[in-house]
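Thread amino acids onto this structure.
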């Protein structure tokens, strides 16, 4: 492959400031144009404000199945980070490419785009699809629109390779990530008569205890032989806020908490248990004093785990292409679980290291970038043989 072309596209992509809070349309329009220049049609799906878009494109026959190359176009902010060079310019130094998104994960997207013409020649019987999303870094919101827009049933793509940085190892599992806000509304009153009010902070404390119990139960039963560290679903309470003053019964309380679900653990166990405790126990007690008392829990982010697939088709293909004889897990969440939920076999494999992601002076080594390119070349060769 033409490595100068790989590099030119990489340079172009890094130049778009696609921090999640901003629009990614400049990048998406540019990529759509580029693909159009190669006779490849694209489908865009937008957020509610039409300021961000996903790009989906099919190279090859419009038939069921095929392999999705998935990447997110957004990057994390550079605010407050001490960069040695302009983060939105690709800079080569000491065998590394520096820039925001070099590792996470515009390298993979650049390499995929650079092979569009070659894939077009190769994808005669099995299509290759590009799925480039927005808002991954803030909860994988964008790709949900893209997935909802895909053809259903038989006509779905069959496999998805999520090119997040794994140093080209094959990752077939990660934990989920669910981030929730619980808002408790009680009744204000004078602190000398606490029973005439409903203390939202005290109600919150009972919810915290339940979260603590659910965490302890899982910690007590780690999954033997699991590659995850720690090998159980974890919980964290990150923010608690509420009340006005020491002599006022607290009317409001807000708790921001999360759990990272292990593949095989059950989300509904957590949600149902919290729901039962609130509806059957806590809320009735509060409403005896104040019928307007309320407890509402909303998930701000709800990212499913990537569950290892027995004899997974995506894993088998990527192992064949990389020559890897084992698999690993990743410690971060990706869009892979969403592709899997949408009925595709999914695996995570891409160039660069997550160690360098989200930091100042983010980089990908030239070697990793080249390895990523060779991997996609082999994918093209494999597709041509089908
Ligand atoms: Zn990423």
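Threaded sequence (386 positions):
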């Amino acid at each position: 492959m033409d490595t100068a072309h790989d590099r030119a596209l990489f340079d172009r992509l890094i130049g778009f400031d696609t921090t999640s809070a901003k629009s990614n349309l400049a990048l998406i329009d540019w990529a759509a144009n580029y693909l159009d220049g190669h006779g490849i049609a694209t489908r865009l799906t937008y957020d509610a404000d039409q300021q961000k878009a996903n790009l989906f494109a099919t190279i090859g026959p419009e038939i069921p199945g095929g392999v999705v190359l998935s990447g997110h176009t957004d990057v994390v902010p550079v605010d407050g980070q001490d960069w040695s060079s302009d983060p939105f310019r690709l800079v080569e130094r000491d065998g590394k490419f520096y820039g925001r998104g070099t590792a996470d994960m515009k390298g993979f997207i650049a390499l995929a785009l650079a092979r569009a013409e070659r894939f077009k020649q190769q994808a005669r019987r099995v299509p290759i699809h590009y799925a480039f999303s927005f808002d991954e870094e803030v909860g994988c919101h964008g790709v949900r629109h893209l997935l909802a827009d895909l053809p259903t049933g038989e006509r779905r793509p069959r496999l998805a390779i999520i090119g997040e940085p794994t140093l080209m190892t094959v990752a077939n599992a990660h934990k989920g990530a669910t981030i929730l806000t619980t808002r408790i509304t009680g009744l204000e009153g004078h602190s000398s008569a606490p029973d005439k009010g409903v203390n939202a902070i005290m109600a919150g404390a009972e919810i915290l205890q339940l979260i603590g119990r659910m965490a302890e139960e899982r910690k007590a039963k780690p999954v033997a032989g699991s590659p995850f560290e720690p090998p159980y679903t974890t919980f964290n309470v990150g923010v608690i806020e509420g009340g006005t003053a020491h002599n006022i019964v607290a009317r409001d309380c807000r708790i921001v908490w999360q759990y990272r679900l292990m593949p095989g653990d059950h989300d509904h166990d957590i949600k149902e248990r919290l729901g039962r405790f609130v509806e059957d126990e806590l809320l009735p007690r509060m409403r005896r004093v104040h019928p307007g008392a309320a407890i509402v829990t909303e998930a701000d982010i709800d990212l499913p785990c990537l569950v290892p697939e027995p004899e997974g088709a995506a894993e088998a293909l990527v192992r064949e292409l990389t020559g890897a004889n084992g698999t690993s897990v990743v410690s971060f969440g990706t869009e892979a679980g969403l592709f899997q939920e949408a009925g595709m076999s999914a695996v995570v494999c891409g160039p660069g290291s997550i160690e360098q992601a989200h930091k100042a002076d983010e980089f990908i080594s030239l070697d990793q970038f080249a390895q990523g390119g060779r991997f996609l070349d082999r994918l093209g060769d494999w597709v041509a043989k089908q």
